[in-house]
Automatic annotation (TrEMBL):
It comes from the Bacteria. Signal peptide: none annotated. The lineage of its organism: Bacteria, Bacillati, Actinomycetota, Actinomycetes, Micromonosporales. PROSITE patterns: WYL (PS52050). Residues 16-129 form the PafC HTH domain. InterPro entries: CBASS_pafABC_assoc_protein, PafC-like, PafC_HTH, WCX_dom, WYL_dom. Residues 150-217 form the WYL domain. This is Helix-turn-helix transcriptional regulator.
């Protein structure tokens, strides 16, 4: 399962607003008393949106966020003037830790397979390394083993129109299989690289995540994509919930609410009980009930076990039973005494002083 498209759209809108807010203060500082309508036109937003941005700026400022630390402005009718900029006009100064963190993050971006605008990332890296100078004691190197090589091999097979034999890990079933595929195209979806291909095993078009291809061999035969094969529409994301998929209802705690943002949920009910008879006392005010479709119950079982006590299965009953049985089996394994061949002994020659 992948993150829903609405999240991607929201994240993009937030990023656009952040860029606009960062540009807004120096813009207004250079134009004291500008009319809001004129500023909105220059910035390419509506007057309502600009007023909302100005209201947000009012609660932004330096750490501490007391009245004397926040950005302040004065309004004269439909005109606005920045009266205190909270230091936003001063050049950014990075501490050694901040510079190191930024370098590591940019290095990771540069190494991400299929990342667009890698030249811009490399230029930014060079500028930060030059500015940091001796603040960063040692050069920073980040590597994602095999990712770039794997991506280049996949891209080459697509360009040469060659079939591939791959070993692929399917997370939903927690298994690896060998397949022969006929590549169609490479694409990036939500920050991950995929190869779209005709899978001879499934006899259908499938998407294979590059980082889940454990091994690949380019075959000495051309890719044979059948005429009926059609590329998949990934505009709304990879995972598309359909009514035929299992519906899972979970009771989640506060720290697990990110599930509702990361996965497409059919229902989110804060502090409510599901229809059909869960005791209202079993659902605390800070707990949420969420329902979502999953590819299969085996994936859901592994996901829920990894969440610990923050997630409880409400339905279906068979999933709750599977989770309970596996959790009990794990507890029994920890409670069992060490076998005859597994005793812990002190190293020879040891002793107490």
């Amino acid at each position: 399962m992948t993150r829903p498209a609405t999240r991607t759209t929201g994240a993009r809108a937030s990023a656009d607003r952040l860029a606009r807010l960062l540009n807004l203060v120096p813009y207004l500082l250079a134009r004291p008393g500008i009319e809001i309508a004129e500023a909105a036109n220059d910035l390419g937003v509506t007057e309502r949106q600009l007023r909302e941005d100005l209201e947000l700026l009012w609660v932004c400022g330096l750490p501490g966020y007391g009245p004397g630390d926040l950005i302040d402005m004065a309004f004269d009718g439909d005109r606005v003037t920045i009266t205190y900029d909270a230091g936003i006009d001063r050049p950014l100064r990075l501490t050694p830790d901040e510079a190191m963190a930024l370098l590591v993050a940019l290095r990771m971006l540069a190494e991400t397979p299929g990342m667009a605008n890698r030249d811009a990332i490399e230029r930014a890296l060079a500028k930060i390394e030059s500015a940091a100078g001796d603040l960063v004691a040692a050069p920073v190197e980040v590597r994602l083993p095999g990712d770039r090589e794997r991506l280049e091999a996949l891209r080459g097979a697509v360009q040469r129109r060659r079939a591939l034999r791959i070993t692929y890990y399917t997370a939903a079933r927690d298994e690896s299989t060998e397949r022969t595929i006929d590549p169609i195209r490479m694409l990036m979806v939500e920050g991950r690289a995929y190869v779209e291909a005709w899978c001879r095993r499934a006899e259908a078009v499938r998407l294979f995540r590059a980082d889940r291809i454990d091994a690949l061999t380019e075959l000495d035969e051309p890719a044979a994509v059948p005429p009926q094969a059609r590329s998949l529409d990934v505009g709304a994301g990879i995972f598309r919930p359909t009514p035929d998929l299992p519906l899972v209802t979970l009771r989640i705690g506060r720290s697990a609410r990110w599930i509702t943002e990361y996965y497409p949920c059919e229902r989110v009910e804060p502090g409510l009980r599901p229809p059909g008879g869960v005791d209202p006392g079993q659902v605390a005010a800070e707990e949420w009930l969420v329902s979502l479709r999953v590819t299969d119950l085996a994936w859901a079982r592994r996901f829920i076990l990894g969440m610990g006590p923050e997630v409880t299965v409400v339905s279906p009953p068979e999933l709750a039973e599977q989770v309970r049985d596996q959790a009990l089996a794990a507890l029994d394994a920890y409670a069992a005494p060490l076998g005859a061949g597994n005793e812990v002994t002190a190293p020879s020659g040891g002793g107490t002083g």
